[in-house]
Design a protein that fits this description.
The chain is an alpha/beta fold. Helix content is 37%, strand content 19%. The protein has 8 helices and 8 strands. An 8-stranded parallel beta sheet has the order 1-8-7-6-5-4-3-2. Helix 3 links the parallel strand 3 and strand 4. The longest helix has 18 residues.
Length: 226
C-alpha cells in the first residue's frame, strides 16, 4: 500500500519557512500542525494565526492536532483559519465527545481524535464509527524527539483489525518517532499516515529536497522488509 506522509511543521525551520513550504507543497500528502496551550502539555507551539498565515500558500490538507485542555475554545478559530482535519485528544472530550464531533462536522471539517500512549482504543468505542482519522501517539505528547514506545504497535494493529472487520473509514495515523528505526514495525502493524518530524525528515539533510529523498529511500527499504 501507499503511505501518506505528513511533515510536522513544528519541526521545520521557521527561518526558512517559505523555502521549506515550497518543497513540502511538491512532495507531501498533508501537513501536520500542533496546537498546544501550555496547560494540557507544558509546551506552547503553533496557533490558529499560524494556520491562517500559511493557508494561502499551500494546497495541501492541513491536519491540526489540538493538545489543549478545552478543545471547544479552539475549534471555530482553527476552522476559520483553514484547517481541514481537526483532531482533539480523546482524553479531553470525554464529557462532550458527540457535541464536539458534531461541531467540527458542522463547520465542514473532517474529524479526528488522538490517543495518548496509555489511552486504550476502548475509550473511543462509542463514537469510533464517526471518525475520519485516529492518531496513535507513539510517544508521550508535548515535545519533539522522544523515544518510540513499542507497546503502541499492538494498538495500531487493533485499530487495523477493527477497521477491516467493521468497515470503518478512519485513517490510522502515527505521531511520534516515525523514522528509519520504526518504519518497518509501523507499516507491519497497519499504519497508513506517518507524521515525520525531526528524526524522520528535518535532520536528515540541510537541503529539504535531499532530506526527503533520503526519507523515501528509508521507507522503501522498510516497505520491502515489512
Amino acid at each position: 500500500m501507499e503511505y501518506k506522509i505528513s511533515p510536522s511543521l513544528m519541526c521545520m525551520s521557521l527561518i526558512d519557512i517559505k523555502q521549506q513550504l515550497e518543497v513540502l507543497n511538491r512532495r507531501a500528502d498533508m501537513l501536520h500542525i500542533d496546537i498546544m496551550d501550555g496547560h494540557y502539555v507544558k509546551n506552547i507551539t503553533l496557533s490558529p494565526f499560524f494556520i491562517e498565515q500559511i493557508r494561502p500558500h499551500t494546497p495541501l490538507i492541513l491536519d491540526v492536532h489540538m493538545m489543549v485542555e478545552n478543545p471547544a475554545d479552539f475549534i471555530e478559530p482553527i476552522a476559520r483559519a483553514g484547517a481541514d482535519f481537526i483532531c482533539p485528544h480523546a482524553e479531553t472530550i470525554n464529557r462532550d465527545a458527540f457535541r464536539i464531533i458534531n461541531q467540527i462536522r458542522s463547520l465542514g471539517k473532517k474529524v479526528g481524535v488522538v490517543l495518548n500512549p496509555a489511552t486504550p482504543v476502548e475509550y473511543i468505542q462509542h463514537y469510533i464509527h464517526l471518525l475520519d482519522k485516529i492518531t496513535v501517539m507513539t510517544v508521550d505528547p508535548g515535545y519533539a524527539g522522544q523515544p518510540f514506545i513499542p507497546e503502541m504497535l499492538g494498538k495500531i494493529a487493533q485499530l487495523r483489525d477493527l477497521k477491516q472487520q467493521k468497515g470503518y473509514r478512519y485513517l490510522i495515523e502515527i505521531d511520534g518517532s516515525c523514522n528509519l528505526r520504526t518504519y518497518q514495525d509501523l507499516m507491519g502493524a497497519g499504519a497508513e499516515v506517518l507524521i515525520v518530524g525531526s528524526s524522520g525528515l528535518f535532520t536528515l539533510d540541510n537541503d529539504l529536497d535531499v532530506a526527503w529523498d533520503k526519507m523515501l529511500d528509508q521507507m522503501r527499504q522498510a516497505r520491502h522488509a515489512a
